Amino acid sequence: MVGLKRPAAPTITRAVERGLYIAASGMLAELVRQDLIANDIANLSTPGYKPDRASQRSFADVMLSNTRDGEAVGPLGLGSVIARRTTDFSPAPLRETGEPLDFAIEGEGFFAIRTPQGVRYTRNGQFQRAADGTLVDGLGNAVLGKDGAPVRVGGDGRVDPRRLATVRLDRPRKLGDGYVAGAVAGNGGAVRAGALEASATNPARAMVDMIASLRAYEASQRVITTIDQTLERTATQVAAVPGQ
């Protein structure tokens, strides 16, 4: 019977190290997904909130071949990475609040807000009256009217919703604090007073996605533990074989 030659220790080490990097890339990708999902869950009650999605892609595959005869074995993936993050800006259902300074947009438009960084846009129409009588958002920034000036609240504590500026944006992108930026592409939809747009986060889907991501993370973690044990055996056993 012809004995099989034991592979050299460096070859085994390179193989298990490659698996270590593949598993680690999967863990990093799942950490990004979990951060996005956690942020979506935290904004379940934020009016006009839009959830984020992360899409993954794999690194280029490496073709493996038999070192003895050169016969192709097949491709080996080198892990995954977050390719891009996208935001679903689809309108969510509107709910009546009865509050005179709550506003919701019927359509895909955005309210215009004047901030210290310039004009920003939002779907969150939960506004209030400032000390100077102007309409402001939750951060105290002025809500703009169709004339480009801050909207003033009437003596009866109300604002005609037709005075509020709404715009439609081309390729909107999140900036933080509920604000959005983008090129103005036209007028937005009609404004309804005494209503707010609900958060677009689906709590059931968010929890399912979080559990799936956590299990994928744990699976990669178990792979790393197994690889670590393999490396330890390689260092203590394979390298000690006579003639290696």
UniProtKB/TrEMBL annotation:
Family of the protein in this entry: Belongs to the flagella basal body rod proteins family.
Predominant cellular place of this UniProt entry's protein: other
Domain of life of the source: Bacteria
Keyword Iron: no
Pfam short name (any one): Flg_bbr_C
One BP term from GO: bacterial-type flagellum-dependent swarming motility
Protein name in UniProt: Flagellar basal-body rod protein FlgG
Tagged with keyword Magnesium: no
Keywords: Bacterial flagellum, Cell projection, Cilium, Flagellum
Single GO cellular component term: bacterial-type flagellum basal body
Flagellar basal-body/hook protein C-terminal domain ranges (all copies): 193-235
InterPro entries: Flag_bb_rod_N, Flagellar_FlgE/F/G, Flg_bb/hook_C_dom, FlgE/F/G-like, LlgE_F_G-like_D1
Residue span(s) of domain Flagellar hook protein FlgE/F/G-like D1: 104-145
Signal sequence range: none
Segments traversing the membrane: none
